[in-house]
Amino acid sequence: MNRGDWLIEEQTPSYQTRWRVREVLHEEQTPYQKLQVLELEDFGRALVLDDAVQTTVGDEFIYHEMIAHVPLFTHPHPERVLIIGGGDGGTAREVCRHESVQKVDMVEIDRAVIEACRKHLPEIACGMDHPKVNLVVGDGIAWVADHADEYDVIIVDSSDPVGPAKGLFNQAFYKNVFRALKADGLFVCQVLSPFFHQSLIRDVYGVVSAIFPITMPYLAVVPTYPSGLHCFMLGSKRHSPLREGVRTPAWPTRWYTPAVHRAAFQLPPVVAQLLEPSGSQAGQ
Question: So what family is this one in (predicted)?
C-alpha cells in the first residue's frame, strides 16, 4: 500500500467502506494477523488489523470511553479490572482514570500490536504504561480460565470474531468470565454493528443472558466503524447500569456523561428486536 491508495473494508459483497491513505507508517504480518498503522486523510493515524480499522486518533475517544466508563460507573466501587485485548492502550487509559481502581491486568495476545501502537499512537497507547497496569502478552482466554473470583470488572476489548479473537465470542468463554468475576462483578464486550452483525448480537445476547442475571446491550456512534452505529453487551451479576446514583466523571470527557450512559441503553425497536428469542445460539 502506498500514499494515495485506498484502504477498502468490505462488509458485504455490495457494501464497502473506503479511506484514502495519506501515509503508511507501519506494515507487517504478525504471527496472528496483518498489522498496519496508516495515516488516513480524514481521521488521522489508524490501527488496522486484517484490513479492518480498529481505532483512529480522530474518533477513538468514543469507543474507549464507552467500553470503559459504562461498566466502571455501573459498578459502585471497582478496584480490580481485567482488560482482554485492547492492545492499542486506549481502554487502559480510560480505566486508569478511575480513582477507585487499584490494579488493571491487561492481556493482549499480539506483542507487535502493542509495540506499533506505542510508537505510532502514543496518545492512545500511553494507558499501557500507567503504574496501575500489569501488561501481559498472552492468551486472554487462558488467563480468564485460570483466574476465579478475582475481578470487579472485565472488559473484552477484542477485534472482530475471526482469527485470534474468535474464541472470545462463545459460551465457554463467557462462563469463564462469570467465574473470574467477584460476587457483584460485571463485564462488557463489543459486538459490532446492529446492521451488519445482527446474528452475532442475537447469539451473544442469548448466551450471556443465560449466564448473567442482568444482560443489557447498549449503543454508541463511532464514525469509522461499519454503519457508524456500534453495539456493546453488558453482563452483570448484581448491578444494573440504570441504577440510581451513577457517578459523574471527575475529569473532562469528550463523549461519556451520565446522561449519555443512560441514553445508550434506550434501544431503537430495530435493535431491541434482535434480542427476541429466535432459536439461534452462539458457538458452544
Answer: Belongs to the spermidine/spermine synthase family.
- Annotated binding residue 5: no
CATH class of 60-275: alpha beta
Closest CA to 128 of 190, 162, 86: 86
Q: What residue type is assigned to position 243 of the chain? A: R
Give me the amino acid identity at 265: F
What pLDDT does 284 receive?
Answer: 43
Statement: residue 151 has pLDDT above 70: yes
Give the mean pLDDT of 76-86: 97
- Active-site residue set: 157
CATH number of the structural domain 6-56: 2.30.140.10
Q: Give span(s): CATH 3.40.50.150, the chain.
A: 60-275
Query: Residue type at 88?
Result: D
Asked whether the beta carbons of 265 and 72 are under 8 A apart, the reply is no
CA–CA gap between residue 69 and residue 90 (Å, rounded):
12
- Residue 129 is assigned to a ligand binding site: no
Residue 164's pLDDT band (cuts 50, 70, 90) = low
Whether 110 has a binding-site annotation, put simply, is: no
